[in-house]
Structures are given as structure tokens and as C-alpha cells.
Specification:
Helix 2 links the parallel strand 2 and strand 3. This protein has one domain: Spore Coat Polysaccharide Biosynthesis Protein SpsA, Chain A (Alpha-Beta Complex). Helix 1 runs parallel beside helix 2. The model has no long low-confidence stretch (mean pLDDT 93). The chain has ten helices and eight strands. It is α/β, with parallel strands linked by helices. An eight-stranded mixed sheet has the order 3-2-1-4-7-6-8-5, sandwiched between helices.
Amino acid sequence: MIARLRVVCPVLNEASGLDELLLYLDGLTGRSAVEVEVCVVDAGSSDGTRQILERHVERRSGSSGSGFRAIFGSLQAPSVARTVNLGLDGLRESDFFLVHPADCRISSSGWTALLAAVASSKMDHFVFEKSYSPQGVLLWVYSLLLNGVLLRLGRCWVWTNLPCFRFSVLQEAFGGAGGRFPELGFLEDLASGRRFRERGHLMTVLPAQVQVSSRRYVRDGSLKRIILNGVITVLFFAGMRDYRKLKQIFYRS
């Protein structure tokens, strides 16, 4: 049976860069040994994102087996997990899905490595190292620490590591939540990764890096955002599970 992969891309108010993102995502659905479907999930944008997506879906609808669809939500308190969960309906237990934030880009070699991993079906949970673009010295050092300490030593991933799972793994880890990511509103990636580790699902790091836009670091100040990320991560691993309080600390600082 041919392997199937769904690329779930959560978006919210991404109109300014959406055309470029859609062109990139279209390039992921070419012929391969894996059946690839791209699913862009709009959490409830107010900047024209929905209209751009609707036009794109209409253009793609004439293509046989286009491998692209869009889902439109109206989430009152959108988060990555809440948005991604909207894009998981209809998956079979053996299917794979990739969480692909709008700020990330995967190289052709990385995509090839991912498709090979999915096609082999020997792994059920894998991620990528990441780098930032554009990347100064500070973000370069930061990415080295994230890749070496948090990812490889701590076995902890975040959404921008492009985590990919066999759907049955998510169902097993979060069966009590209907086989969906926990919708905590903040740090949903760290909390999900912790649950996978507790259940014995150890990730495989694929031999490629994902490029992550540094726009949020540029906007907020790289040093300030790195320090805040560090404080929140330390508090989480120290046992703090008041996600609303953690979110307040992060956004009010």
C-alpha cells in the first residue's frame, strides 16, 4: 500500500506572504513514492488570508488529484495545536502527517529525506534541526544550542522543528483527547513532546535542516526573545504547568 503524508500548515493573518507560501507548498505535491496532500488551515484570519486561499483552491480544483485543500476555522482563541487539529480529520492510522508552520521552509534534500522516511515506514516520529534566516551571529549560536542541547540531548522538539508523526502514534499518546494534540493555548509543542517521551515514542532527527524565518526575532529584538524563550522553557521543565501564567509572562515582558 502506498504511504500517505498530509502536510498540515496552520495560518493566521498571513496575507502579506501567503502567495509565496502557497507557491512553495505547491512544490511539495509533485510525483513521488508517497501520496502527498497539503492542507492549509486558517484559524480565522481577518486580513484577507481566507480570500487568497479560496482563490488558490479554485485555481487548483481543475487539476486531477491536485493534492491541495484548505480548511477555514473561526477559533476564538487560536493556537497552533487547535489549528492543526482541524486538519487531522480523515487520516488513517497508518498515515503520516507533518506540522508545517508558515514561517518554515524545507530544502529539497530535506524533503527527499522526509519522503524516504515516510515511504520506509520504519520510523513513526521524526523531526528536523533548524536554522534561522536571515541569521546573524546571535541567532546562529542560539540555533546551535537549540539543535544540540534541546533537540538532540533533551529530545525535545518545537513546532518549527517540523515534527512528523504516524497518526496512530498521536492516537496512542492522546487517546483520551480523541487522538488530537492537547489544546493548552501555549507551549503545546513542549507539552506534546513530553507526552510522547513518557509513552516511549522517541523521535528520529532527519539529516537536514529547516530554515525558519527570523522575522519575529527581528520585530521583538533577538536577545529579548531568546531570553524570554529560555525563561519559559526553564519554568516548564522545572514543573510549572500553569500555561495561562506562562503565556502572560512571555507576552507581558
